[in-house]
Design a protein that fits this description.
Length: 526
């Protein structure tokens, strides 16, 4: 009689500890990922606070017109400099996640390529500024902002070393230092009553500081960067990175929306859109991008070694992101009026409906970023770029269509019962977030179908009942607390606590979640 010995469970499913069983080596892996997540989220959290403070100060100090000009100039340059990167850093991190000793060679080659592409972006910027007929203030701001984004693009190359070696704490230190330095400079400029152009030059100076300390940190902790080009590697990176670069370019919905809004209904409307989008983008950068950046090397390795474990990891992350995004949507929907008035004042009343609609988009955005990284981890960059391109087309056409329709209406439409509370005024500038939600829905559906075919099962979790019920009950609590005029700070804290308790009562968490949270806490203490 032959007895067939099954391999140990840890061999069949090496990452099952993330979902329940033991294994010291795997827990070490989880702790390392947890430590990197904490490092990036902590760093991004501090940067979020700094960016919100700067955004509020500048929006109040400059006014909606000048602040709109500044954000439009930055959006235009952000779109230009995305193509200087072409997604090469993402490719390098994916390929060096299992070969970190190669990170230096990738970094040096990408650094040279970005310098070359940056020169091209300067020529394109000249053509766009004069082709679009921008007046003097925006034109000057565009060229200063272009310098900021080019230098920032060069500084971001050093992330290859940090993330390939999974030492994200260094990245957090560099970014926090730059943002705090920038905040001090802006506070000085406001005290001296400088104009928007001088403030733009301060941003440029802070970016130079960021580039220098990134270079020093990499040289000290890893190896000294050199401007050396490896032609075969450069060819591979450009060809492999073009789809990702295009996908990132197409995903710049807010930048495109700001430019279209400024051209169709004015710089003041662009300013209102910008202040509403600031918390949305800060949350996107702090939570989603940090989480995905910390865990992307692991996703790339699991795609090759353990697809079953990878699917479980995707579903668990999807559930966490869904629960968090529901709470954010509640805050935007029920407290949008108070948040805008407290932060920016009565000059930005038209930003309130934009924030409320964008809050609904957060739920879709959180899931889509998970799908974005899943597409890159499994090597589907080309179809990913195609889907994002179609999404960008939907977004751009939607902004033009909805802003045009709402601009021609004789009266303001209010949905949700009233102009207060959960009511949303549909004004011309809300055409931007409406179009964004349509694009996000399209992307979510198409990418989910593609990834289901790749892994033979869905990677988005499907048990929505508990979190949705918890969100509905918490929304009722927020509404009631607003009616009896409880301070907004108390509402934010009490609703978060109640929402968390409801998730526990409704069994939205399991024992494995507790193990993961304990691991995060121990990594944080370490």
């Amino acid at each position: 009689c032959l007895r067939i010995r099954r391999p140990p469970r840890s061999t069949l499913f090496p990452y099952t500890t993330v979902f329940g069983s033991g294994g010291a080596g795997i827990m070490s892996e989880v702790r390392r990922v947890a430590g990197n997540i904490i490092a990036l989220v902590t760093g991004k959290g501090i940067r979020l606070l700094v960016s919100l403070v700067l955004g509020v100060l500048l929006a109040r100090y400059l006014g909606d017109l000048h602040y709109g000009n500044w954000t439009v100039a930055r959006s235009l340059c952000a779109l230009l400099t995305i193509l200087t990167g072409l997604g090469m850093s993402k490719i390098a991190i994916r390929e060096c996640s299992s070969r970190p000793d190669e990170a230096g060679r990738y970094l040096n080659t990408i650094l040279v390529l970005r310098i070359i592409f940056s020169l091209v972006s300067i020529l394109v910027a000249l053509l766009l500024v004069y082709g679009l007929g921008y007046r003097a203030e925006i034109a000057y701001l565009v060229f200063v902002a272009l310098g900021i984004y080019i230098l920032s693009s060069l500084g971001e190359v050093f992330v290859i070393q940090f993330r390939s070696h999974e030492k994200m704490g260094y990245e957090a230190v560099v970014n926090i230092s730059k943002d705090i330095f920038l905040m001090l400079l802006v506070l000085l400029a406001i005290y001296l009553q400088w104009g928007v152009l001088r403030i733009a030059f301060l941003y440029l100076g802070a970016t130079v500081f960021y580039l220098v300390i990134s270079w020093i940190m990499v040289a000290k902790k890893f190896s000294s960067p050199r401007l050396s080009l490896d032609p075969p590697l450069a060819r591979h990176l450009v060809l492999a990175g073009i789809p990702i670069g295009l996908a990132v370019f197409f995903n710049s919905f807010h930048d495109v929306t700001r430019i279209i809004v400024e051209k169709t209904i004015g710089a003041s409307a662009a300013g209102n859109y910008s202040v509403a989008a600031l918390p949305y983008m800060a949350l996107e950068s702090t939570v989603v991008i940090s989480l995905m950046g910390a865990i992307f090397p692991l996703l790339s390795r699991l795609h090759l070694s353990d697809r079953l474990g990878l699917i479980g990891l995707y579903r668990r992350m999807s559930r966490y992101l869904f629960m968090l995004s529901l709470l954010v949507a509640l805050y935007c929907l029920f407290l949008g009026d108070e948040l805008i008035l407290i932060l920016y004042g009565k000059d930005y009343l038209n930003a309130i409906p934009v924030l409320k609609i964008l809050g609904l988009g957060v739920v879709l955005m959180f899931q889509n970023y998970l799908l974005f990284n899943a597409m890159v981890a499994c090597g589907k960059e080309k179809i990913f770029a195609l889907v994002l391109g179609l999404g960008a087309l939907i977004n751009g056409l939607g902004v033009i269509l909805f802003t045009g329709i709402l601009s021609r209406l004789d009266q303001t439409i209010v949905i949700g019962g009233s102009a207060s509370g959960v009511g949303i005024r549909l004004i011309p500038v809300t055409g931007g977030p409406i179009a964004l939600i349509m694009a996000q829905i399209f992307i979510l559906v198409v990418l989910s179908i593609i990834l289901r075919r790749e892994y033979k099962r869905g990677i988005i979790f499907s048990r929505f009942y508990g979190p949705v019920v918890a969100a509905v009950l918490t929304g009722g609590l927020i509404r009631w607390e607003g009616v009896i005029s409880i301070p907004i700070g108390a509402i934010l804290i009490s609703s978060a606590v109640v929402y968390g308790l409801l998730l526990v009562v409704l069994r939205s968490f399991d024992r494995t979640d507790l193990d993961i949270f304990k691991t995060l806490i121990s990594a944080n203490q370490k």
